[in-house]
Every structure is written in C-alpha cells, then in structure tokens.
Design goal:
Blueprint (H helix, E strand, L loop, with lengths): L2 E11 L4 E10 L2 E6 L12 E4 L4 E4 L1 E6 L12 H10 L2 E6 L10 H14 L3 E4 L1 E2 L12 H7 L4 E2 L8 H14 L2 E4 L4 H4 L4 E2 L2 H6 L3 E2 L2 H17 L2 E4 L5 H12 L4 E6 H5 L21 H12 L5 E3 L7 H4 L16 H10 L5 H5 L4 H7 L14 E11 L18 E11 L2 E5 L5
Helix pairs in contact: 4-7, 7-8
C-alpha cells in the first residue's frame, strides 16, 4: 500500500471544526498525519504526491439510506453500479436497505451482501437488516445474531412498523443490545392511495394526496415508545415542519433520537410535481415550500442530524407511467453532495454545517470509524471543488437507473477525487 501526500488542500473536518490550508498524509488504508504545517519540510520520500489545487479535502461521505436493488432487482441497480455512483458523488460508505428479494432478514443474507460488496463494490457497503421478518410488520427478526453478522441497524426500509406492540418489543430488545432502530414514518392507512402531498395543489392536479399527519402521527407515537424503552431511534426521513417539532421536543427531553432528511426535500417542493413529473414522485412526498424551508432550518439549527440520498432506482417501465401509477423513488447518490453544498451557497449554513450531516453525524449514529480527518482514522476522503457549476445529465450518470429529479438542472460543487481506504476509486476528468 502506498503512502500518499495530499498537498495544497483546504482541510475541512466537521468532527474537529478544522478548516485550514494544509496537507494530509495517508499510509495504506489510514490517515498518518495532517495539518497546516505538514510538508513544510517537503513530502516524505517515496510518497505519491497529489496536488489538491486549493480544493476542499474532507472526510468521505456516509449515505445512510440507499436502496441498492441487489438481490432481486439487479436490472435497476446492483451493489457494483450503486458503488460507482456513490464514488462519483464523493460517498465512501453506503448503507443499503433490506427491501430486496429476498428480504435481508437473516444472517445468510447479511453475509451475502457483505461478500458481494467485497467482490464487486468500490466503496464500503454496510447493510441494515429488516426489523420484522419479511418486512411484514408482525414478527421481530433476530437482532442479536444479525447485529453480530454485521448489520449496522434495523429498519423495514420504506415501510412503517405500524403495530405499536411490535415496535415496543423491538425497541426494548434493541435497548438491550444497544442497536439502532430506523423507522420510515408513514401511517399506511392515512397515506393509502395518495401519490403526492395533500393540499391545494394535489386538488388542482386531480391527484390523491398523502397528508402530513401520516408522518407526524407515527413519529409522535414512536417518541413515546422511545421514552418508555430508552432505545436508540432514528427517523429515516422527515419531510414537514410538524414532524420536525416532534423531534425537537424529544431531543429537548434528552431522548436518544436522531433524524434525517433527504436531499430531495431540501432542494425541491410539491410544485416540482406540477407537470406530472414522475421523477419527483418520492416517499415521503415533496411537501409545500414552507416545509422545505423548515427542513433547511432544521439542518442549520442542528435538529436534523443527517442528509441522505434516499437513492431509489426505478427503471423506465416503472416511471414512464401516468403519475398515479408510477412507482415512488428517485436516484440521489451522485447529486447528494451538490444539493447539500447548495445550502452553503445560498448562505443557509456554513461549509462545515453542510458537510457535518454527511460525515461526522452519520458515522456517530452508526458507530463507524470514518467520517473524520484524524490521525489513525480510515483514509476515506473526498476532494471537492465547491465552486464548480455543472448541468446534471441523467444519461451520463453511473447509476443503472436514470430517474433523477435534477436532470437538466445546474448544481454547484462536486467531487473531483474519491479515496476509499487510501485507494483512489474515482477521478473526475473535466469532461465527465
């Protein structure tokens, strides 16, 4: 393994608050040294020198919510193609959801994902296992065994566990093992038949709506159950101001609660659906502009811990349909960083505040070693040109599916180089 000297970099590390010009040295898969005065005496003999040209060198991103398609939906995405998309977006660790065929609900499937990732993926891949068997919401999975096998948390992916008794048992059990429970908050009865945010616009478009209360109600219930059990609980995605209030109250009470918002909900709102664009049909649905602003405010105030891509690849046969019939889901691995940097460019947050929910916070929640620039930490890095403007082109994306809501939009800031375990896994050439 080579030693590599990253020179002339702007080192940005949200975990330590570091933001300074300097250099960083990797030795094999680890960071050996870093700092403003590093390489003043010249680079170490035999080290490969990488000139960062003043760009931002930050910890590689950790994406906590990725639907990878493998096993069972390889035509839409595989761990290999998802990892290529991740690397192009500066994501060095992705957490894949258990909504596969078969479902990741036993040890053999966790082993399978880890083996496939080792063989085919160019970034770190960790599975979240199913919270209930077959995602049926009735019977808990073997959390202890799955956790030992390598599952970093438990979730039913894009389904809510609606049975309060099952959720209470799961949280009690999780508290014993100190494992993470992640919930997609949406009451399926209240959301039944809905395809976009319920409101004036859905009425005008003649589309059945999904009310915000469907999300807030589940979140509210779960906070009470967390209070009862003391388990670590993560709200996979929130989309509206009312749910943010629920989380804020729970945090004020000192409950071990964290939450995430998808990049889509930070940059888009329900009006993006207005021309019946199925690439903007996602779950939870895009909400009103006031809710989008509340999500940005939640990031700025640190109430929302994490930004996720909620990467959900769908083939054209699932998306080129009338809006009501089209599947939910949008890809997001390659645009995650750019959308988060959009908050910085708009002046809503500092650069460190834009990167923290993509690095330090998910690493802390998942108890992963990455997400920081420090001696001895994994050499998982991203070099970012924060000023580069580019036009999103769905066809040139590395994901197998091309269902991005940002197609033909101009975004600012993107990864130029992605390093996993000290090895370069992605380099952006100026035409790519």
């Amino acid at each position: 393994m080579t030693r590599r000297a990253f020179v002339n970099a702007r080192l940005v590390d949200p975990a330590s608050g570091l933001d300074t010009q300097g250099g960083l040295l990797t030795d094999g898969a680890r960071i050996a040294d870093l700092g403003p005065r590093l390489f003043n005496e010249g680079t170490p003999a035999g080290a490969e020198v990488i000139d960062c040209k003043g760009h931002v060198l930050a910890p590689g991103l950790i994406d906590m919510r990725v639907f990878a398609g493998e096993p069972g939906a390889e035509s839409q995405e595989t761990l290999a193609t998802a990892s290529q998309a991740a690397a192009a977006g500066g994501v060095t660790t992705l957490i894949c959801m258990p909504n596969t065929h078969p479902v990741i609900d036993d040890v053999a499937l966790v082993d399978y994902i880890e083996r496939r990732a080792r063989d085919t993926a160019i970034v770190h891949v960790h599975p979240m296992a199913a919270l209930t068997k077959g995602l049926a919401g009735k019977e808990m999975t073997e959390m202890g065994l799955l956790s030992e096998a390598g599952a970093v948390g438990f979730t039913d992916g894009d389904r809510s566990v609606t049975n309060a008794q099952v959720m209470r048992r799961a949280l009690s059990y999780a508290a014993t093992f100190d494992v993470l429970i992640a919930q997609h908050a949406e009451d399926p009865m209240l959301a039944a038949g809905g395809v976009m945010n319920e409101g004036e616009l859905s009425m005008r478009l003649g589309l059945p709506g999904i009310p915000k209360i469907a999300e807030t109600l589940i979140a509210e219930r779960d906070m009470r159950l967390v209070q009862l059990t003391g388990a670590r609980y993560h709200l996979s995605q929130l989309s509206c101001a009312e749910t943010l209030e629920v989380v804020e109250r729970a945090k004020a009470q000192g409950l071990p609660v964290t939450c995430a918002v998808s990049a889509h909900h930070l940059a888009l709102n329900e009006t993006d659906v207005a021309s019946y664009r199925t690439f903007c049909k996602i779950s939870p649905p895009l909400r009103a502009e006031a809710d989008r602003e509340a999500m940005v405010d939640g990031i700025a105030r640190g109430i929302i811990d994490v930004i996720v891509s909620s990467h959900s690849p769908q083939g054209p046969e699932n998306k080129r349909q009338p809006f009501a019939e089209a599947d939910f889901g949008a890809i997001g691995l390659e645009t995650l960083l750019s959308v988060a940097l959009g908050l910085y460019h708009q002046g809503a947050v500092s650069l460190i505040e834009a990167l923290r929910p993509l690095t330090e916070r998910p690493a802390g929640i998942l108890k992963l070693a990455g997400g920081r620039l420090a001696k001895g930490a994994p050499a998982d890095l991203v070099l970012i040109d924060i000023a580069e403007r580019y036009l999103v082109d769905a066809e040139s994306m590395r994901s197998k599916s091309k269902n991005t809501p940002f197609d033909r939009r101009t975004l600012t800031g993107r990864a130029r180089l992605t390093v996993v375990g000290g090895q370069t896994v992605f380099t952006r050439h100026d035409h790519s």
